[in-house]
Amino acid sequence: MIEHYNGPLQPGDRAPNVVLDAITQDGQISIDDFRGRKPVLVGLFRGLHCPFCRRQIAAMAQLDGVLREKGIESLTVVNTPIDRARLYFRYHPLPNLLAASDPERVSHRAFGLPNLQFTEDEDEWPHKLAKKTAMAMLIDMPGELPTAMDPWAASAFLDKADGYEIMQDDERMIAAGEGQLVGEFLLDRDGIVRWSFTEATADGHNMFGMPRREELMSAASNVAH
User: Fold this and answer.
1) Average pLDDT of 118-139?
2) CATH assignment of the domain containing 13
3) Residue among 157, 150, 223 at smallest CA distance from 185
4) Taking every annotated instance into account, which residue ranges of this chain make up the domain Thioredoxin (predicted)?
5) How far is the CA of 207 from the CAs of 64, 96, 151, 213, 221, in angstroms?
6) Is 154 contained in some domain?
7) What are phi and psi of 39, to 5 degrees?
8) CA–CA dist 161, 140 (Å, integer)
């Protein structure tokens, strides 16, 4: 499988249709719901157990109003079982958030985002990462972390700060997809990727990061016109 990996979808690629259970409304949501109607920003995240993803989702929700003014919808996808996800958003509501549950990470695979495996000593980015390599990645979040920390220490600190309790559903998602790489894809009204931001870059520089607002809004303006 790995030798045929072509990386995440790139600008110019046609997004596949994926049908998912809706979290914030009844029924299902699919990529084809938007195709032919309006552009959509699709955010594919790890489960809500990931504190970095919770912050990315909140940042995406904050831009929803500005994007809607440009005629662009937003869709957040999390690999969290639907009941657990609905419970979270009931207590942590994000106005206008359109979200879907994808515990099997079907959408992540369809958009070319690999599920990174942590190994004892083998590095083969973006498919395998040695634990010592991951531990050497220091995350610096001024105002949220007291100092730069490795991903696991940072996650534990942020979970405690958020009051997020890991439940059985979360544990199942972590066991299967702790290293699931994430990304955001801006699709035009025909469902063609026009901009993206993913953790699956060649150098891994975007790990645990967020897209620059200016870059995303510039791409949104181009898609809107």
Assistant:
1) 93
2) 3.40.30.10
3) 223
4) 9-225
5) 23, 27, 10, 17, 26
6) no
7) -65, 160
8) 16
